[in-house]
Structure formats: structure tokens, C-alpha cells
Specification:
It contains 17 helices and 16 strands.
Length: about 450
């Protein structure tokens, strides 16, 4: 046990009045370590820093650690984050290290926000989380509280992380707290979300863990803190949010395929259907991307024994949507007497979302692959990432209109594409808009919108 732990009580099991515990938390008397300083971890560490003035961020990337300790910010396009990190580092409220075990020894509250991965066989891979938790256990002291913000397959805290902490630390379950407190943030608005755009969910491995975690987040966020029965319930809350969105988007993407047969604007029908309070159909698009929604179904499908055919079907629909978009391109070219094989197609956007430099599971990349597999010559343009690993030739957004394109597909609606000179493309170029953002009158040519038609 470290000298610090012998001298000062931890938050877990603390019998002082809660008002004093809250004051001590705000005064930095329970030092915080945040493990993982990525695009969600750094904003979380920053908000802990502005609340407590005593945060150590932990990351395996020495470049990330050095950047932060110099007052810099490696996470881009997050309003206010760079300035906040710079101020916190200057004030001594935030520092970074690669030494997770020492950070654990020095901290009383441990916050884990590293990714849960998926294997090539779509199996949940918790190895990154368990590696971090193993390091925490080596520095864990009685009275410490461990808060897991990483999204996990339900039962991971109960069946994996709790026993691991106990085994590696040599402590009993009653000596430390463990709670699941999922991040509910989105890229591009992380600070606002961490501070409380949505209620914070907290579920502990026991009642005292729940109480201690609720106290922490009650001071951290401006919104309501919702306590649930246990860690597994809290894990399910986060996973269920993603499952709902994946299934709902699959419904929207499937409805969009009725556009030609029904000869209607499916998006209009969805918008009007949603005026009924019990209907909330999402918006169709090119598919589903990012580090969350495409992966969470496998936290159930390939983790639990109970069959989930609806979730599996939704995954199939969304995974097939980029190929459907490529099929639309082929059909529109065929209407002009052209074959997609040998055609030149420009794909605008490679990231899964506008303004976010993230390509994991991006449907835009899958559109490029499908077009290339059908024999098209593909050019791709994105202001945030290049085309490395994508079967396409990258071209700067300012130069795309110089390409003699047979078709242009808007896959990601980056604001930089607003400056494209659409009239510079050949007059007959087919334009496919998967995001419903192009105005045909403004760009001076017909547009096919996924879910609306021509």
C-alpha cells in the first residue's frame, strides 16, 4: 500500500458526511487518474481537471503524453478543448504519463476510457480494457474507486473486471469500489456532452460503489445522475442505445430502397410519419460507421447465448447499404448507356461523419471498395484524411471538379465540399447524394438523393 493511501481515506467506504466528501473531491483530495487520452478520454480528463484540479492522464503513446505536458492538444475539431487543456496544464491541474501503475498508486479515483475492440471474427475483444485494469490493480489501495467509461459487453464488470481487480491487487471486494459509468459523448461536442448534455448513468458492483460514483459524477456534470441496479444494467444501457440506433437506421435504409418501386419521396414519408408521437424513424443514408454503432451489436450477438436475429438482420442491412449505393450509381450510368466497369467515379468524403477524422467502419470507404470491385476508376476526396488503404486515388477537394467524372457520390457532407464548382464537371455527370444536402438548383444539375430519388 502506498504512503498516500495510509495517510488519507479514500472515497469508497468513507463515513464522513457526504457534503465533506463532495468538498474534498472538488478540492482535489481524491486525485484522479484517467486511463486513455483519445478523442473521448482527453475531454473526460479535462472536465475532471477543471472540477478537481488534480488529474493525471495516462496513455501508452509517448507523443500524446508529451504533447499534453507541453500544453498542446492532439484531439482536433473539439470546440474549447485545446484552450482548456492548455490552461489546465499551465495551472498544474492536468498532467500526462505513460506510467499507468505509478498513476494508479497516486490516484484515489480511476477512470477507464479505452476502446473495446472487435476481432476479425466479430468477437468482442476486451484485452485493452483488461490490460489497463490490470495496471490499476497493481497500484490499487483500499478506499479507491474504479469507474469504467469504456463501452463493454454486459456482465464484463461483474464477471471479468471485478475478479481481475481483486486477484491482481490482493484486496477483497469490500476494499475498493467498481462502477460502470458509460460515456455518452459524440465527436465534435465532447466537452459539452461530458459536462452533461445527457443524464449520467451510474451502476456499481455494490451499493457503496454506486453511491461513491454517483457522488463523483454529481459534482462533475450539470445534468441528472441516474443510478441503476448494478454494473450489468449500466453496461446494457449503453449497449442498448447503440442497438436501437443500428436497428432504426437499418429500417430507414431499407425503406429508402422502396423509392423507385413506389415512385415516392421516402424521406418525405418518414418525416411526416414522425409527426405521430409514437414514431421516430431515423434518416436513411450510405450505411453506418464509426467506432460505436457498427460494433455494439456484436457485444450481444457474439457474447451472449440468447439468439438475436433482429440485431443480426439490422447489421446485414446496414453493412449492405454501401453496396446498394454503388448499385444506384451503376443503374444511373446504365440509364445513360454506360457501364460502371470502366467508368470514372468521384467519392466525396471518406470519414464516417462530417468534421470527424475517423474512418472506422466508414460506409464511404465501403462505397469506394464496391465501386472498385465493379471495375470503376475511383477518386476519393476528404479534407481530413487521405485514401491510404482505400482502392481510390485521393484528390484535394479544390481539385475534384477538374476530374472528367461519369458520376460523383457525396458520401460524407464535409463543409469543405460547399466550395466545389459543380458546374465544372461535365454536363452529363451523374450526381448521387447519400446525405440529402445538395441543392440541385444551387449546383446547377440534377441530383439523385438516396431515399428521395431524382
Amino acid at each position: 500500500m502506498s504512503e498516500r493511501a495510509e495517510l488519507a481515506p479514500g472515497l469508497y467506504g468513507n463515513e464522513q458526511p457526504e457534503a465533506l466528501q463532495r468538498e474534498a473531491f472538488r478540492d482535489g483530495e481524491y486525485p484522479v487518474a484517467v486511463y486513455g487520452l483519445g478523442k473521448m478520454g482527453l475531454p473526460i480528463a479535462a472536465v475532471f481537471g477543471e472540477t478537481t484540479g488534480a488529474v493525471t492522464g495516462v496513455d501508452i503513446d509517448e507523443t500524446v503524453v508529451d504533447t499534453i505536458n507541453e500544453g498542446g492538444c492532439h484531439v482536433k475539431n473539439e470546440p474549447g478543448l485545446a484552450d482548456l487543456v492548455g490552461d489546465l496544464v499551465a495551472d498544474g491541474a492536468l498532467r500526462a504519463t505513460t506510467d499507468a501503475v505509478q498513476a494508479a498508486r497516486d490516484a484515489r479515483i480511476h477512470v477507464v476510457i479505452v476502446p473495446t475492440l472487435i476481432t476479425e471474427d466479430d468477437e468482442p475483444d476486451t484485452s485493452v480494457v483488461t490490460s489497463v485494469v490490470r495496471n490499476i490493480a497493481r497500484g490499487l489501495s483500499p478506499g479507491d474507486l474504479v469507474c469504467i467509461e469504456s463501452t463493454l459487453p454486459p456482465r464484463t464488470c461483474r464477471d471479468v473486471l471485478g475478479p481481475l481487480l481483486r486477484y491482481e491487487s490482493g484486496l477483497d471486494f469490500d476494499d475498493f469500489g467498481l462502477a460502470f459509468c458509460p460515456e455518452r459523448t459524440s465527436s465534435g461536442r465532447a466537452l459539452a456532452d461530458v459536462r452533461g448534455s445527457h443524464p449520467k448513468v451510474v451502476g456499481g458492483i455494490n451499493d457503496e460503489s454506486t453511491r461513491a460514483a454517483a457522488l463523483v459524477y454529481g459534482e462533475l456534470v450539470d445534468n441528472e445522475v441516474i443510478t441503476v441496479s448494478d454494473t450489468t444494467t449500466a453496461e446494457a444501457v449503453k449497449v442498448f442505445e447503440g442497438l436501437y440506433r443500428d436497428v432504426n437506421i437499418a429500417l430507414a435504409n431499407e425503406l429508402a430502397r422502396f423509392t423507385e418501386e413506389l415512385d415516392i419521396d421516402v424521406r418525405e414519408a418518414i418525416e411526416v410519419a414522425n409527426t405521430q408521437p409514437y414514431c421516430d424513424i431515423h434518416t436513411p443514408g450510405p450505411g453506418v460507421g464509426g467506432h460505436c454503432i457498427p460494433y455494439y451489436p456484436y457485444f450481444v450477438l457474439n457474447w451472449l447465448e440468447t439468439p438475436a436475429p433482429l440485431l443480426a438482420t439490422a447489421r446485414e442491412v446496414n453493412d449492405a447499404t454501401p453496396d446498394h449505393v454503388a448499385g444506384i450509381v451503376a443503374g444511373k450510368l446504365d440509364d445513360r448507356g454506360l457501364d460502371l466497369s470502366g467508368a470514372t467515379v468521384v467519392v466525396l468524403g471518406l470519414t464516417y461523419r462530417a468534421g470527424v477524422a475517423e474512418t472506422r467502419a466508414s460506409p464511404a470507404i465501403d462505397i469506394c471498395r464496391s465501386l472498385a470491385s465493379r471495375g470503376a476508376t475511383v477518386y476519393a476526396s476528404d479534407p481530413l484524411v487521405d485514401a491510404e488503404g482505400v482502392p481510390a486515388t485521393w484528390v484535394h477537394p479544390d481539385e475534384v471538379s477538374s476530374i472528367d467524372a461519369d458520376a460523383v457520390v457525396l458520401a460524407t457532407a464535409h463543409e469543405e465540399f460547399d466550395a466545389i464548382d459543380w458546374r465544372a464537371f461535365p454536363e452529363e455527370t451523374t450526381v448521387i447524394d447519400t446525405r440529402d444536402v445538395l441543392d440541385a438548383s444551387r449546383i446547377g444539375r440534377p441530383v439523385y438523393v438516396v431515399g428521395r430519388g431524382d
